[in-house]
Protein 1
Amino acid sequence: MLAGIVVAAAAFPVAAISGLLAKAGGEAFGQLPDELTVKRSPQISYVFASDNTTQLAAVYDENRRDLPLAEIPDVVQQAILAAEDQKFYDHNGVDVKGFARAFIANQSQGEVQQGASTITMQLVRMSLTYSLDTKAQEVLAATEDTNARKLREIRYAIALERRMNKQQILENYLNTAFFGNRAFGIFAASQVYFDKHPKDLTVSQAAYLAGLVKFPSSTDDEKGKRAALERRDYIVTEMANLKKISPEQAAAAKAEKLVILYKKTPNGCVDVSANHWGFFCDYLHRWWLQQEVFGPTTYDRERQLRAGGFRIQSTLDLTTQTAAYNAAIKQAPINLPQALLLAGIEPGTGKVRALAANRNFKLDDDEENGPNTNPKAPAGSKGSYPNTTNPLLSTDPSFQGYRPGSVMKIYTLVAALENGIPLDYVINTQAQAQSKYPYKLEPTCNGMWCPPNSAGTAIGPHNMWTAFGSSVNTYFVPLFDTVGGDKVIDVAKRMGVTFYDVPDDPNDRPGTGTKDDDFYSSVANAKIWSPFTLGISTHPPLQIANTFATLAADGLYCAPTPIEAIFTFKNEKLDIGGKNCTQVIDPEVARAAIDAARCPVGDSSTVSKCQGGTALDSRKIIGKPVAGKSGTSDNESTATLTITTKQLAISGFLVDPDWPDTTQKMKHKGDRGINPAVQMAMRDAMAGKPSIQFTPPKNQKLITGVQANIPVFAPCASVGDVTAALKGAGFRVEVAKGTVPSVCPAGSVAATNPTVKTLRGGLVVIQVSDGKGPSPGP
């Protein structure tokens, strides 16, 4: 085949080659060296949805999928043999007569006209290339036209025939040979040129493919295409001469008009079968690169994925993914700068079920993408819409996420429960909270952080049910201070929240030049970082979804995974990517937290009363028991809603990835609002699934704490007398600001809140009468 055969023939005339063959029985000559192992050549890895049937993506360096010889039809085998090695079943690795014939023909023509490399010798050459650890000099030595290379091929071919039978050699050859147009092996060639499985090829198609092995790039122009058809006809003729097909079959094969498709085999996440699967595919790819079992470096892991021939059954649930994507693009068309992001995860398993965005998963295109919205971006720069491959939804060191807002109050709530503060713990909330810790960035009160409530938030006495339901900032800031920020952040970390080592943004975070993780890892710093409870740190939707999934699973944290199962090319299941769960929150604490988290989304507490909610229509729309929380960052630059059922948690973010501090206000309700998107996604994903109730908490210490009766005092008593009585009973006492309608004389006590009993040592708020109306309700 190669020009080097002329030199090889000259150096090793027929008599010499015959002598070598005679020595084939000798162990030294006929033994394969260590450097030649017929390794399986690089294979396509396939990624499937959770149904293990729907293909999401193919990933490869070389477009190849090996087939057993039994799945390669005889017509294909005979076409290859007619084209490349008609004496294949007669020689023991080297065709001596063919070698001599080629030598004489080439000498008479003065150039290479005939080849003499058998299929076995060609397989040796290809195997050497794949077996040499890709060292450039060794690959060159395996392919260059030299006497040494030719002699080595002859020796190894003879040795290979002693190790493998003819069927094994032919199978390896058919799976390794290059057919042009990035098609390696007969399976890929059948797909690329005819979009068929090899078993469905006609005689004409099989002969056409067989002719490409010698000239794999010959079809690139019209002349080459004609030559390929001429070679097809030659091979068909040879098949007839060898009695492998009938004359009638040969005539029909030559007359068949071939439609050559040159079909591109999709490769990687930008070529997923449905574009909106791309963000999940990318998440799986990034997950793979972090798994040391696939190699010591990311390069090694990438090579394993792209050459290992794995069958990867992912966790992507097509119903959930479709529901999430449809909801995202309905609420926010893909041409908007605002990104609507939805991440879904399964409680109790960590299986990532959906990652959807109102974006095309596509390389950024300066011609298609809109202008960057960030005023600090270079003039004329483009934004990440509608096309991007950035990891907008999942955890990655290169991506911090966004400010989730008040949904982060959940960590303070859980930490409070863990530290003996029950759900019924009352704080007399004000319009503005006065933290006991300093803060350098936002407007402060004498240097101390003092955030206000959102507009319209009811102030006064609140417990955790009502404060979480109505998202009362001025409840959770003092609660954070009481519990201790280090304990709150410890809860967050146990539930999967990460803080990446990235340079500090002086506009958002305390200090100068600190690192996020360094800062939060410091107990002293964490204690004073009250803004954490209102969601000022940055996190991706998947982490927040998994927080609520952890609580829905009774405190069982499961590391997010994109993997149902991974099978090797030999169909061996790998023990990686499966369920990896740890009990990080006491089940009763988790159940108590879920009980409070039912209030914001219009569900009902099983042990108390909800009051207010920021997404009250969620329970009605979804039609299942739900818990969750909305969130809004400073200046409404981010809007979020997270909802969980027992079977699925979805977190939705509405953000501007190019300008996280955008002045564009993100909406919760109505068109282009995040709430309807999350609600629709959950409704459609859960359609037809059973309604499973959350397990109610039973531990009264977590619900009400140790209760004590509030002293009975005379109607319309003085504030001083009631205060003394309450303090004498061990209660904390506050007098409400302002007055309430009451028949009692102005300035006297109209009522207390609570009225009958409350947490021992807890807060009792005295309500003062205005003397102008009926008594206030309880």
Note: The first strand starts at residue 45 and ends at 48.
Protein 2
Amino acid sequence: MSLSKSRSKLGHVLVMWLLYFLENQHKCWHRALAFQSPSVCKLHPRSVPSIYFSPTDRIRGRALCTSLLAAGKTSDQTPRQDVSKRNRPTNGAERRKLNSDIFRLRKKQSSIHLAEQRLDEAITDMIKENEKDSGLNIPSLMQKRHEQTRKQKEEMKIEDKGLEQFPDIVSFHAVIGSHAKNAHKDRLAPRRAIGLLEKMKELSDTFPHLSPTIFTYNAVMEAYSNQITKNKYRRGSQNRSSEDEEIILRLYRELQEAGLSPNAYTKNMILSSIPNDSKEWCKLERWAFDYLDNNGKSIGADRNTYNTLFKVYSVVGNVKKAGEMLRKLLQWHQQQHLGKDTQTALKPSKIWFHCVLKALAVSKRDCDDHDDQIQRLLKEMKDLVNTGHADLQPDTTTFNHVLNVYATYGNLGPAINLMNKMEKASEQWERPDCVSYTTVIKTLASVQKKMLMTKTQGSVEIAEKATEIFESMRAKSILPNVLTYNTLINIWVNVGTRDALIKAEDLFSQIRYPDSVTYSTLIHGWSKTRLPEAGSKAQNLFKDVLRLPPSRQRRNFSITKLCNSVISAYAKSGNEDAPECVDSLLAQLEGKYLSGEKTARPDKITFLGIFDTYAKAGVSDAEERCDVLLERMSQYRDMLQLEDLEPDRVVYNAVLNGLAKSQQPDVIRKVEDILAMMESSTDERLRPDIVTYATVVDCYTKCGEMSLQRTDELLRFVERTFRSGDETLKPNAVFYSAILQAWAKTATVEGAEKAVNLLQRNVVLFTQGNDYAKPHSIVYNAVMDAIARSNMAGAGARAEELLTEMESLYQSGDDGMRPSRRSFNAVILAYRNEGNASKKAEEMLYRMEEIADSGRNEIRPDVVSYNNAIAAVVEDSDSENTADRAQALLDQMEVYGIKPDGRTYSPVIEAWLRRNDEKGHALADVMLTQFLDKVKESKKGNVRTKKESLYEDAVWNVINAYREGSDNDFYAQLASRGWISGG
């Protein structure tokens, strides 16, 4: 083979390799047909069909073709240039040198600015040359060259000397295309691209050959489109994406006003970049549908168009439009096939069916026919397979999409059946993979969520079933990924018990590379509990998540949200040091935000959580702490212009709640000042609402003497103001409960009678159509509490009668009347205070156990239930075997795993000391030793609760009360151990 033919063959191979590379990038093999010409060697860079490629790819292809053709012709008919003449300057060689420099420099992101600098120098030279009086009309000559074909340029006889070094439109496209390509790495790239577009428009007044074309606009819009795609997966970039969408829309309108016709690539980019509710998007959507209605007679949409639409429909959950477009595409293809049309551009794709399934999952609508829709789609795919579309055979990915639909709707049965079918499949491409098992576990999570919403039992069983599937997955050597672990951890976290959280932590320890979602799930789980260790557990996880690399920080990762959850965990934990811990967390959050971490900005929820921590901890210096926190909010608002930190009604309600829970009499003045400020404010955001007055009543009840008269005045004021038209003071169950609690605290028969009368009045008002007076369980609980504290005759029976009424209303369908543990505890307290109804109190305790065993575990007795029952036994003047009965109840607590406190041991010890005999003193000594061991163990731990530190005094009060007149040997033993001084 001759050297000439070898080079010709090499050139042919290189050009075809280029085309293969471009086609492979777009994964559209049918486009390669456009280039299968017998004379590929004559291919000119400008002959690449622009409609098929993005500006970036087209410029890249033209550059390589140019370099190939510049090196010498590869046609068998045209001899290659002699080697000695290869570097001889020809017409346009200098311009190609300019463009070659630009193409070379733009290959690396770090060198793009050099390419732009090279272009700026060439522009400056062209402008200076044009300003000279050389007799050459440079704009006219450049425009003439721009309009000529390559052959005409080679044959033209006029001398080009002086024009070769000037830039043409390809020079600009090269740099703009580079910015478009690198927009996902360089956030300034779109701005530079649009800056070059503006420069082209400015220069085009003098140099018409630089007028922007559709390809110019496409390249600039591509830069912004790539930026939008990048921002979808970046935290805190939503506003920037919105601005980019507006710029793309402006450019799209601008190019049409300039008389340019958008091509398919332009329209596809608009469809994928702008909001789907905009006018332009809807118009393009209609264009795509019209193309199918016209049976493809007009030039228009291509496969990328419909793929983009399917993607949008799947993201927003538009099942109707996705299904309609799928039907039209299948009909269009069938008509083309019957007409023996050879077009394959819109051949049915499995991706289309998958997008419809995605849309069905994302829609999350309560439709009963989603399973029917799934079966129809699968049947259509199988029918197409039978007609020759073998690539549409449903596979593992298809079934995973089906499982995802079942997971969304919580259809556990169909999901398990499909999984079993996949496991029995003979073909590998139909068998389940990691995604399959993860999606079935996700289905169980959806079922559990429904249970929690409806307060149905079975959450633990769901978690155990999910763990069983997880272990089955690993037994088949299918390795779980981090999403699998996250889903299973979330299920165990939602169980909400200490054992479940320990199980979740065990799963967490098995993950090699946990991500931010893993940590967030566990932190949120601890924040929902009321366990003493919840705060410290959540904070340790918070410290770890802050050290995660960016690659493991998932979308929507927010330091502020996680910090708020840690604060919530501390608020519910009851730790003595919770207020100091949340103050430290706020300082840490402030430091990160001021150092540049935008996702660490303290928000209103942060401050509300801290106020709530103060309230739940019952800090004695609540007034001082709240003032400091309000001042910090104001500083942030003024210094950083954070308007959402402006204290409003919600904030001051939280402050009032913190002051109320402090139980300090001197805060009453502060409460009155805040209420007066809110009442006199002209800002509607500060005006008091029903929560404000309920909290004020609660504050008077806990921090001072709330007289019956003052309570009556507030009740009449609120109801009168509401009836006059102020909806913000519409009474609710919380407000009435606060009023009733104020009456209950008086511990008088009059207060109890007022509570009963208010309840009866509200029942009548509700039957007359006043929804604000609807009875609620918390109102009944408050009335029963008032009765229990009143020492009125028959208090226990009256409280139990109300409890029976609550249970009856709940069983009839009123979920708001569901009795709680507090309801039963109020009845036990009522029987205790009667002084001779200990057996009734014990019966109520056993009834709680029976109801809990039947499935309503929230009724199971707690330490308060047993404390009141034990006290009822010890305080019962008619009780026999008092000490033995009290001891039996204490032992029963230990069996059920209920941790006794000082108020539990004190009546039991008192009962044994009352016997004033050897056995009584011995067992009192045992109980005291047991209690002190528990106190010592509690103080050794890292977590000390307020209750454990307070109730220790109750035991020593009993010991000291029976000291005189008792066995001196017993107290001598206590003194020898150093215990008496502890009292």
Note: Residues 3-79+91-153+161-219 form one domain.
Protein 3
Amino acid sequence: MPFFLAAPVPEFLPQIVALIGIAAVVAYVCQRLGLVPIVGFLLAGVLIGPHALGLITDEAVIEAAAEIGVLLLLFTIGIEFSLEKLAKITRLIFVGGGLQVGLVTAAVTGLLLLFGVDWHIGVFSGFLAALSSTAIVLKLLGDRGETNTAPGQSAVGVLIFQDLAVIVMVLLVPALGGEGGSALDVGWALTKAALIIALVLVVARRVMPPILEAVARTCSPELFLLTVIAICFGTAYLVGLAGVSIALGAFLAGLVVSESTFSEHAFSEILPLQILFSATFFVSVGLLLNVGYMLTNLPLVLAVIGVVLVLKLATTFIAVRAVGRAVPVAAATALILAQVGEFSFVLERAGREVGLTPMGMGEAGSQSFIAATVILMALTPVFAPYAGRLARKLETRMGERAMTDEPEPSGDEFAALENHVIVAGYGAAARKLVRVLRGSGIPFVIATLSPDGAREAERDGLPVLRGDYAKRHILEMLGLERAKLLVIPDDNPQMAHRVTAVARSLSPTTRILTCAMSPEEAEELEAAGADRVIAAELETLVGFFDDILRRYEIEPGEILAHEEALRRGNYAVFDRTPDDAPMIECELDDDCFATRTLTLREGMPVAGKTLADLQLDERLLHVLHIEHDGERLDEPTGDTVLSAGATVTFGGHTDSFIAAADLFRIHDLKVPLPDLPAPSAMRADWIDTTQPVSLIPNPNAGCTHTDHIHEVTPSAQGCEECLQHGDRWVHLRICMECGHVGCCDSSPGKHATAHYHATGHPVMRSIERGERWGWCYVDEAML
């Protein structure tokens, strides 16, 4: 028997397949019905759980995956939140959160005392009802982009206090059950928690930024992702040792990473994992619901739901108002937090071990509590959309601003950009393009993964986002849907293909410009969605600038004059420094920002239809002119057909283009990945193997190996090893001790670093055009 048929199927695999498959199907159905996926995940858990189809037998595996989901969810929220935002809501955390927990606990205790229930059980039941679902609330706020709104930050503040309160509650449960637990134990637990949190804050400020920068410098996505995961799980584990909830530990880990300039890159890398595992958490909650019990005892379950709902709404409203938040904010926050949380399940199990059950009703109380909790969690996504609407209605009626005394929104410097240019990457060509753009008056933003490139751009006062611009989240941060153009000037064809495909699916109305080394590569990029592919170096930049100016409706004569200025003096304008006066200045008015030029493709809903069919006026769009087969139509009529292959210039506001995106989106687009053979004779023709190369180190760099820097002659017109094997490289580096030319760490071979490990030669220099920086491998210093 072949070895690959010998091993039996692991027991957990059918359960994982059932979980993911059924969750996907049910979530899809819910999405089609207008419900958020979370409801689908909860229903899927009910369906495959032990009380329905019984497809899940090893709940421990699912619970472990669910724990990971909660950790990753809280970690990403922490990255988005930041220490600065946390400092602004400390009063809300401790006063508002403390009031909310205290009021719910007191109200439940008093209510149960009226029915003759012992006060110990009353306090225990109050603890269970006081907590809200951190995972569900933060997931909903994040998906709706409301984490940084006034109600969103109020909810986060209360949730943070609840997570801290769990420490005390867990210690008090044995005491309530008559099995010890002293004030000294509680005090010591709080002291440990405070020390751990203080340590995390110190690490966030002092230790984490240089660590993430060092890892990012390796250009290894695998290493960066592993480092980020290690920070998340490691911090959660250390915080858990102090008795603090590991979910809060993961949130603190996110705050640690948020202090680094690579926080957005970390967020985009971990987001796919967070989506997968957080879905598992919601499914695991659904597993707990016993539908048979719920239907048999429906009046009791509904009574518990009603009491909890009323108490949570009232106490949260009072608590948020008590810290000075406006009535609209308090009402919206109360609606968001009107459920019972996942940590209540932990408390319920702890209480059962010492003889405590919800409402003192034994197994019936536990089952009623679980049923009510799951149903309230399922209702939360239904309540959440009404929170914002309620706040706006109350704001209008009462004349009370919802943002009064609230923290500022996200502060994202790119959020206000629209009709701008996104420059993807900051290599040699991008630098030259930016030098021209910065003096033109055209708004732009740079995205790069290079620590050195990002630092250089920031030093020059340029807008830059550190992150992988092939990731959807990073493109959204850059405002791709609002952008007029995306330019990819430096990347190899495979990377440019990835970026183009992702960008085109995200924003059908943004023009994409890129470059290629051959006609075959150009065809692949056009198939992926690029509007224009140009294949030469400095002339490529002229082409990019020409297209940018045309899309901003600059007069043809002015465009020609600017192009001649770019070519003058052997393209000297591209080598100008940031201190030089701009050579290119454009006259821009409002009309320049109100157009988009798109290439129509087969499969687009607009292709083949007349302007009358499309009724663009209702979408606040109009066609200015159409170019097709070398002819231009300046006055199209209602009978004009928009044919595939035509280049159409539309006029309209940014919001109109976003709203009309579905007219241009190809829903069944299947783009094959390019399979491009590596050329056997790839050469860097700018390298002269007869001319010496030198490096003048920065005396303040802190390098102790400058004695290894010599004037050297390049060993080859490209990476020696890559030339031997016919491989590609990304950037080239030269050893300043022997002249060996190798490829950078972004290249598959990483031969420059391999040369250092093989020879011990410590200093290398970039040998790319226009770059003169060096690097000491031993001292890790930029020269």
Note: Residues 706-782 form a domain with the Herpes Virus-1 fold (CATH 3.30.40.10).
